[in-house]
Amino acid sequence: MLRYTLKRIFQAAFTLLGITLLTFVLLELMPGDPVSVMVQRQDASPEVIESLRARYGLNRPLYERYISYLGGILRGDLGYSFYWESPVVEVIKPRIGPTLMLVLSSYLFALTVSIPLGVLAAANRNKLPDHLSRLISLVGISTPEFWVAILLVLVFSVQFNYLPASSLVYPWRSPEFYGYQSHLELYFQTARHLFLPLIALGTAQMATLMRVERSSTVETLQEEYVQLARVYGIPERRILRKHAFRPAQLPIITLAGMSLSGALGGSVVIEQIFQINGMGTLFLSAVQSLDYQLVMGITVILATMFVVGVVVTDLAYAYVDPRISYGEQS
Amino acid sequence: MATTQNLNQELSGDSSWRQVVRHVRNDTTAFFGMIVAVVTLSIAIFATIDANLAALTAGNLGDYTLANALPFLENPVRTPHPTELDPFLPPAFAEGGTWDHPLGTDSLGRDYFSRIVYGSRISIGVGIIATTGGMISGIAFGAVGGYYGGYVDDLLMRFMETLQSIPGLVLIIVFTMFVSGGNPDIRYAVVGMAIVSAPTFARIIRSRVLSVRELDYVEAARAAGVKDRNIIYRHILPNSFAPVLVYSTLHVSGTILAVATLSYLGYGAQPPTPDWGAMLNTAQGQIHSHPWLSLWPGLSIFFTITGLNLFGDGIQDALNPKIRD
Amino acid sequence: MTGDTIFSVEELATEYRTDSGNIRAVDNISFDVNASEIVGIVGESGAGKSAVVKSIFRSLGDNGDIVNGRVRFKEHDIVDIGEDGPNPGMLSDRELRRQVRGNEIAMIMQDPTESLNPVYTVGSQIQEIIQINRDMGAHEAREETISMLREVGIPEPETRYDDYPHEFSGGMRQRVLIAMALGCRPDLIIADEPTTALDVSVEGQILELVRGLKEEFGTSFVWVTHDMGVVAEICDRVNVMYLGEIVEQGPVDDIFHNMHHPYTEALIDSVLSPDEKVEHLEPIRGVMPSPMDAPSGCRFHTRCPDARKVCQRVNPDIDATVDHDAACLKPDEHGYEESQSLENAARQ
């Protein structure tokens, strides 16, 4: 298990390296150079520009620049945002929390709903629970996230005025910050504000996961070892809960990792609709203002999140499937 | 296990295609999906060839009713004259509407129905073009990498992996930003979408190529001195195609969804070209006063994607007996 | 049932429903098993052997139905279906599960890799089954599991208990499955081609193990295989199946020395024996037809070297001949002698 962990981390490092390379290449291709972009809005004398150039090493050969770029990243330097007039890292930092909160909670929602429903559907194939779940997952997959969001806002905020339609409350702040009386109220409001965005983002994931859960469970129920368990008199309930459940989760684990990509992309839209101050809205505004460094910095962060997520799910997979962690012996 | 499907297969010795056809015929939802897909495709094609429609939706105001949009009437585009600017309500449901504009008009008085119809052209067109582009480039990468192996394969796969690590939407927007310098257009979205689609196709082809590569008749061909290129074209690719086709049907619907989201954010087709996602964005602002405007584009997206998904599901089910009964 | 018989199948018929109609996979077969006896069911792929096994356990799946017959194990009516459907004496699903499955009849399947759950340890899987079927506590069942593992020849069973299925070789896995079956102390074990997927040398070991276990525990086996060699090695009696029917049945010695049915003869001929010098291998001509296109009359007539015209018309019943039963017209039935030969004999 340890060996496998190290192997995966090593592979992930390579992918991250590739990402930095891609980012670097793109930044090189952009019109103008960082310094001219940086000083765009201020008057600067040629000497200052030249010294800045030297400082940022813009007159050095390509591979050297890449090395220093890489070094910068490892030291936590992702460049400089001309729009915000501060280092990229500083701009991004406060935005990470909201995005993580949104993405992780939508994941939780998707998993907790899809797994039981999927198993239920598989156990009652072609009966009502199955048809219902297939309907739900079809609708979930076929509806754009932003439309779900719009509809949710329409129903819950406009019509019923029950749930807020914008921004989030952050549980790591103090209650006084928002004017709440207690931590309890703080958490309650957090949930309340998070509710609609979470569902909007999580619906598509939930739908996909539910389908895969169903088909994986159906397939597992047809495996020889399940049939053998039945032949040996194990009650169906126990088979569902114990024999078929765990092997069936394996594809889900992998899928959960892969769909993180979609979730991160979706959070861009959802944040925009709900006016959440996360990385998504930052990204969109950065693109609007052609703040190349900031855009690429966000891209690197998002890609890193994804890679980390995949590694985590791979490790979880290996933990569940002894064939991976214990290796083959014969 | 002697499932019905397996028995059917064995008994009739059907090829995969026949299985698919038969399954889709029998399975109501898959059939429905296919109908929807065909209908949408026809509408899109119709929208493309109907020049009047094109001209009229391009933003010309005026005496523009549905009748004028029909392709076979001799109706040159008229010069606009002032019309009501307010959105109507669709006649079937509400007062104030007319059959001239079955779905009402938008904020600029343009016939909404034609805009919706014309929007299908963008959605379906982009879906198909982007998927095809992704398929071709993905196949190229995957086949080359899978066949040659070694560090060529490694390099290509690392590159694909890197592309896949960036969320698709983000990648496309970044791509658009770099290439267009701040002027997004549907063309960039298409190319970006193709780029994002390529890695999965590459992976599918690559694994097929890896398994086919070791087969005896390929060895024989190589021993006989057949050029690598020809081997790939004639022996390897035809055998690897089936899973690619299955995946591409599913992928088209995913592409349409992604494009809708992109254009909602403003990175798709630019006004005045009608595009469902963009229309939704505009309609959202007027959701209190004129909720109808949001309904039609949303429903169109929903139905198109649902139909394609059902159809794609049907195909998948037909080829994978274990999930069926 | 006669005195010694613990298991009997009478006139069992099973059908599968397909889009092209119903297939009769098992067509009115009858056989029985006595205590401490290994009875074989032998035939090519598609003969219906698996269908028989599934029917015995009532695990046919959604598209298969037992349309007729009785399957009795001791005093339990596992299957009792007549013209009007199931008879009242037949066990309900629940009764079947609790009373018979596992603790009375156990099963070993063909593919040991697929028969074990890959995410749980081998020991825990066996233990669970023992616990449920023999009503033991966890600790006791664990002891029993280890003892069973030792019994089937797995070294260091206490350590191996915590290993996962993929850490065993094919032959070892099959032993594990045998241990699982034995752990329930059943009186009957149904083995569905358990050695087909194994190397010949490993197969030999397993067969020897089974013989020993039969002696020691007095368990009976129904052994399904396509290999006459295996039948010769361990079976006491055998049933030869072709296209859903039993065409010959009786004690193994009798059949091998005195085979009546041409199919049996062909099966035996197709097995290599180290004793004889073999000039050429005699494969059985043709392939078994699909059950949808069962030949008229005697089902084997299309491939039978001794077929005559009358064989196309008449499907012989399984009859008692001198020492055992065979379903063939050859001992001059229905005018076999006068009938014209169909010249199916293998041509060189």
Describe it.
The complex is a heterotrimer of chains A (330), B (325) and C (348). With 330 residues, chain A is mainly α. Chain A contains 16 helices and two strands. In chain A, helix 5 (88-123) runs antiparallel to helix 6, helix 7 packs parallel to helix 13 and helix 14 (279-288) packs antiparallel against helix 15. Chain B has 325 residues and is an all-alpha fold. Chain B has helices at 4-12, 16-26, 28-49, 51-57, 66-69, 112-148, 150-165, 168-180, 186-213, 216-223, 228-265, 276-285, 292-319. Mean pLDDT of chain B is 74; it is low at 1-14, 60-64 and 71-86. Chain C has 348 residues and is α/β, with parallel strands linked by helices. Chain C has twelve helices and 13 strands. Chains in contact: A-B, A-C, B-C. Chains B and C meet through helix 1 of B and strand 1 of C.
Keywords:
heterotrimer, A: 330 residues, mainly alpha, two-stranded antiparallel sheet, 16 helices, globular, B: 325 residues, 0% strand, disordered N terminus
Short recap of the structure:
In chain A, 77% of the residues lie in helices and 1% in strands. Chain A is an all-alpha fold and 330 residues long.
Overall form of chain A = globular
Uncertain stretches of chain B: 1-14, 60-64, 71-86
How many strand segments of chain B? 0
Range of helix content of chain A: over 70%
What string, H for helix and E for strand, traces the elements of chain B in order? HHHHHHHHHHHHH
Radius of gyration over C-alpha positions of chain A, nearest whole angstrom:
24 Å
SS-based structural class of chain B? mainly alpha
Gap between N and C termini of chain A, in Å?
18 Å
The helix/strand series of chain A, from N terminus to C terminus, equals HHHHEEHHHHHHHHHHHH
Structural class, from helix and strand content of chain A? Answer: mainly alpha
Strand order of the largest sheet of chain A: 1-2
- The average pLDDT value of chain B, as a whole number, equals 74
